[in-house]
Amino acid sequence: TECCNCTIPNGFTSINAQGGVTISSLFPNQTTFNNVQWLVCGKLIIDREIRILNNSSLLMESGSEIEINTNGRLISVGTNYSACENMWKGITFQGNKTLQVFNNNIINDAQYALNLKGSTQINVSNNFFNKNYIGIRSTNVGSNSPVIVTFAGNTFSCEDMSGNNTTLKDP
Length: 171
Known about the structure:
mainly beta
């Protein structure tokens, strides 16, 4: 069923997360997702360790978001995150001492691609941040501030599919 204003592309599974839905309630027995294609509508809450790997694609409805709560851990490698129409909110890490991994991904069209809060610890390597309002955001300072353990090989850009400069989507 269609949960939002986007047309569901062939091969994609629609995830209706309106009002906030946990990954453990959607997939109670699965923690590793290889080559998945999801259209996410609403707030997808990561409440345990999950791995999104190997050419997965997450197409995000306007205003949708992914939140890693204080019990969650995201290991994302080789995944493409993008908006289907207007900008999506991005991925928010609420902060815990467990090391988050965000490597070799493409993240497009987010208001805050990675929003780091609390005591988040994260590796951010070899990602392509494209057409995001802000690539990496942290508003915390002091003893409870996020730590980027590794930061290497990332590219921040604003270009279309042909490599030409372009403008951001509407929020």
